[in-house]
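Here is the promised in-class demo. Please do not try to memorize the tokens; focus on the logic of going from shape to residues.
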């Protein structure tokens, strides 16, 4: 089906056919999502047969609106955000046809949760210094190492993994990208309790984990380039998510301001107005960034959006705690839990304040993202790097 025939009217017709054949109120949720994927209405800009129709990305909003009016279920995107926002675009660009057919449908419908095995205790900001090793053995690879700050590892069936396959070349050149089955022997997931009391993150130990070569994405040694697709999509998915006006962190404090006039002061009013405007600018900038993604490949501008997201969340949550006074010091639940998702707006002000501290770390630290914006968006001179041409095995550690 060509883009010429895929206008908004045609997509409304196809959506109506889906709803007639699978009435949402009478159809099992998972069955409906599978039917939606098979009809090409999951992500319409993906190719036919992979949940899409090869249509312009902007037309996804047409489908989503029709399904929302009909009361159709969504795929719980917050729960499977790593799969949708990071794994799927990478698989689409670098995966074989067999990998795409095997992985994308269960990923989109939410049958299988994904996680990201990138960061390590000694390779966080300097991710390319990672030391997890993958050694070729027959038709597969034996992987040993440790990963950290892994969201949803306790829920995940699959992981996107980068590992060192050649220690004799510079650090960026000796990395290969894999898909790892988290149920395989040798994968050990351990909780990391955070300041919020929860264990949303994990550390993952990999001991003689065998990954078939058929689960490699991209060429051997080309993993850093593949990982850039993942990382750029990650920053867009974190910093450029679609929200309504007064959505996200600015919503709860705005509601409190309107409902609790006794808490107001002139100084707090001025600060709230400033942050409200900045949040709206960030929201509209995210809309424009998504419009620029019609071709399907994000640029480094996502780093700027993620920077703004982190700063605003921390400043807004701090102001909310201050506005609430003594109430802002209360905390709803310190129970050690392993949640399925991060719920900024469904918890209290204390949770938002504590959890937002991680926003400037996860998805790339703010310091690293500032360098990316400076060098790759603004074109400023790069910082001196003395290890660029040194073999990884010879680096000081």
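The designed amino acids, position by position:
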């Amino acid at each position: 089906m060509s883009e010429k025939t895929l206008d908004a009217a045609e997509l409304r017709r196809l959506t109506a056919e889906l709803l007639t054949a699978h009435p949402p109120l009478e159809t099992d949720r998972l069955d409906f999502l599978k039917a939606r994927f098979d009809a090409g209405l999951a992500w319409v800009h993906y190719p036919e047969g992979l949940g899409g129709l090869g249509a312009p990305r902007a037309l996804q909003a047409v489908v989503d609106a029709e399904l929302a009016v009909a009361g159709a279920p969504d795929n719980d995107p917050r729960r499977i955000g790593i799969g949708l926002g990071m794994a799927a675009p990478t698989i689409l660009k670098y995966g074989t046809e067999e990998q795409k057919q095997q992985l994308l449908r269960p990923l989109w419908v939410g049958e299988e949760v994904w996680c990201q095995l990138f960061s390590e205790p000694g390779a966080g900001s300097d991710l390319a210094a990672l030391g997890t090793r993958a050694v070729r053995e027959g038709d597969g690879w034996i992987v040993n190492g440790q990963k950290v700050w892994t969201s949803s590892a306790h829920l995940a069936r699959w992981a996107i993994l980068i590992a060192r396959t050649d220690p004799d070349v510079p650090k960026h050149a000796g990395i290969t990208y894999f898909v790892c089955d988290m149920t395989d022997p040798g994968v050990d997931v351990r909780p990391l309790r955070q300041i919020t009391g929860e264990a949303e993150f994990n550390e993952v130990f990999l001991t003689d984990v065998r990954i078939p070569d058929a689960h490699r994405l991209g060429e051997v040694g080309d993993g850093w380039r593949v990982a850039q697709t993942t990382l750029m999509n990650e920053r867009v998915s974190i910093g450029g998510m679609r929200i309504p006006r007064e959505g996200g962190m600015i919503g709860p404090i705005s509601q409190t301001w309107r409902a609790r006039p006794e808490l107001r002061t002139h100084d707090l009013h001025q600060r709230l107005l400033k942050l409200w405007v900045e949040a709206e600018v960030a929201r509209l900038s995210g809309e424009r960034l998504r419009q620029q993604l019609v071709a399907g490949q994000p640029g480094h501008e996502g780093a700027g959006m993620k920077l703004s997201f982190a700063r605003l969340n921390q400043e807004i949550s701090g102001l909310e705690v201050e506005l609430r006074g003594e109430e802002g010091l209360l905390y709803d639940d310190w129970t050690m839990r392993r949640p399925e998702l991060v719920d900024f707006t469904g918890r209290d002000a204390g949770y938002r304040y504590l959890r937002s501290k991680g926003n400037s770390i996860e998805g790339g630290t703010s310091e690293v993202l500032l360098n990316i914006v400076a060098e790759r968006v603004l074109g400023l001179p790069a910082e001196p790097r003395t290890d660029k041409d040194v073999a990884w095995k010879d680096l000081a550690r």
